User: Fold this.
Amino acid sequence: MKSGIIFIISGPSGSGKTTLCEKVLKDTNIKKKIAKMVSVTTRQKREGEKCCRDYFFVSNKMFLYKKRSGHFLEAKKVFDNYYGTPKRAVKERLKKGKDVLLCIDVKGAKDVLKVFPAAVTIFVNTPSFSDLKNRLVSRGSESKKTTELRLKIAKSEMKEEKNYKYIVINDKLSKATKELEEIMLAELGA
Ligand code: ADP
Ligand code: 5GP
Assistant:
């Protein structure tokens, strides 16, 4: 059986990755093929987030234990927390010929590409740095210190944009959603 496709979405914090993924996964043709893999993280749960749906929220100790036990396809410290992609869920789905979506940072993406060089990479960005700042601030999920850290790291993340197969500029949400849907459907051959 033909293995499924891995879609990797990266981009600076606040560029709209989560929003866009939620939107495209509502499309019937995409929903029946692609599942977003739930990552493990040590960061605090935000208001409105649910364990097992948005992330598996774990302690540092549990994360490091899982890492040592080979639980992750890739695992990185992003900003001040650990994040990792569970290996088994991804491999089992691919083996069945089903497709997966990973919403992970640029360093994690590089590691996944070493194992799955055919993964389809998509970088989500905002039209300008001030848009990114405004969105991150208006989301209201981070402290001032964390917002500053995320914006500082955004600059180096943006340098990786050129290494991605597709770039989606999340200007108008409906337009960016359509663009992402078109990319995915084209890659799926749907
Ligand atoms: P990320 O997952 O990349 O960190 P989010 O999806 O959480 O980013 O989006 C960051 C903030 O920007 C959220 O408050 C979201 O509602 C908002 N947002 C996302 N896309 C747009 C858009 N096209 N225009 C305006 N605001 C947006
Ligand atoms: P947030 O805390 O805003 O949910 O995510 C912060 C960053 O961590 C984002 O760039 C997001 O894509 C990334 N991220 C989320 N899950 C994973 C993962 O499993 N692995 C890696 N490497 N990055 C992740």
User: Anything to note?
Assistant: Residues 13, 17, 39, 43, 74, 76, 78, 83-85, 103-105, 108 surround guanosine-5'-monophosphate (ligand 2) (CB under 6 Å). The chain has a mean pLDDT of 97.
